[in-house]
Design a protein that fits this description.
Layout lengths: L1 H9 L6 E7 L6 H14 L5 E5 L7 H4 L3 E4 L2 E6 L2 E5 L3 H10 L3 E8 L5 H6 L2 E6 L6 H11 L9 E5 L4 H11 L3 E3 L14 H5 L3
Length: 203
C-alpha cells in the first residue's frame, strides 16, 4: 500500500496555472511583466514554465531562439529554464495550454478578436493600462468595449504604473474593482530577492 501511495503522489499532476497578460496599448509592459512572471516561476519556484506569444515572429527570438527543444511534445525554444512557444495558430495554442503539465504564461500583447480565446481560458487575467490624463480614456474604453460585457471584472487584475489614490478611487467608482500598481522590476532575466514579494502578487 505504501508503494502505491508513493507512486500516485509522484505521478500527480500539478494544479493548472494559466496566466495571461495584455496591454491596453503597446509599450505598456505586457511582455516585461510576462517575462518577469515566467522567470520567477522557473528560477524561484523551480516549476516548469511555457511562455506563449501568439505571433509567428517575435522580437524575443533574437534572445531566446538559440536552443530549440521539445517540451512535452511541443517544439519550442529554451532560455534560462523557460520554454518559449511562438505561433499564430490559436487552436493549436489553446490545445497546448490545456494539455501541458506546467505553468503557462501568455504574453498576449494587445487583446483582439483573434486572440481573445487565449484570454478567456486563463484563470489569471492581467490587464495593464495607463491612467495618465492623455491615456485614461483609452483604458476606460478598452474595458467598456472589450471586457465589460464578456467578463466579470472582479476576476481580472487591472494594473497601472505610477498609480495615485485619485486614480484608484476613480477607477473603483467607475468599474467597481481595484486598480493596482505595477511592481518595478529592473530585469526580468535577473530577478533580485527584494522583488519577490511584489512578483508573487501577480500570480
Amino acid at each position: 500500500m505504501k508503494r502505491i501511495l508513493k507512486f500516485n503522489k509522484g505521478n500527480k499532476k500539478r494544479e493548472k496555472h494559466l496566466i495571461c497578460v495584455t496591454g491596453v496599448a503597446s509599450r505598456l509592459g505586457a511582455s516585461h511583466t510576462s517575462l518577469t512572471i515566467a522567470n520567477y516561476i522557473s528560477s524561484v519556484l523551480r516549476e516548469p514554465v511555457l511562455y506563449i506569444e501568439p505571433k509567428k515572429y517575435s522580437n524575443l527570438l533574437l534572445l531566446v531562439g538559440q536552443k530549440q527543444v521539445e517540451f512535452q511534445g511541443v517544439d519550442c525554444y529554451r532560455f534560462k529554464g523557460v520554454n518559449y512557444l511562438f505561433s499564430q495558430n490559436i487552436e493549436k495554442l489553446v490545445k497546448t495550454m490545456l494539455n501541458v503539465d506546467a505553468w503557462v504564461i501568455v504574453d498576449l500583447g494587445e487583446l483582439t478578436e483573434d486572440n481573445d480565446r487565449l484570454f478567456q481560458i486563463c484563470s489569471t487575467k492581467i490587464v495593464i493600462g495607463s491612467m495618465m490624463p492623455w491615456c485614461r480614456r483609452d483604458y476606460q474604453e478598452f474595458i467598456r468595449n472589450k471586457l465589460i460585457d464578456k467578463y466579470d471584472l472582479s476576476s481580472i487584475s487591472f494594473y497601472e504604473k505610477n498609480i495615485s489614490w485619485e486614480n484608484k478611487r476613480e477607477f473603483n467608482k467607475i468599474f467597481g474593482c481595484k486598480l493596482r500598481s505595477m511592481p518595478i522590476i529592473n530585469d526580468p532575466f535577473s530577478l533580485k530577492e527584494p522583488e519577490f514579494e511584489e512578483i508573487k502578487k501577480l500570480l
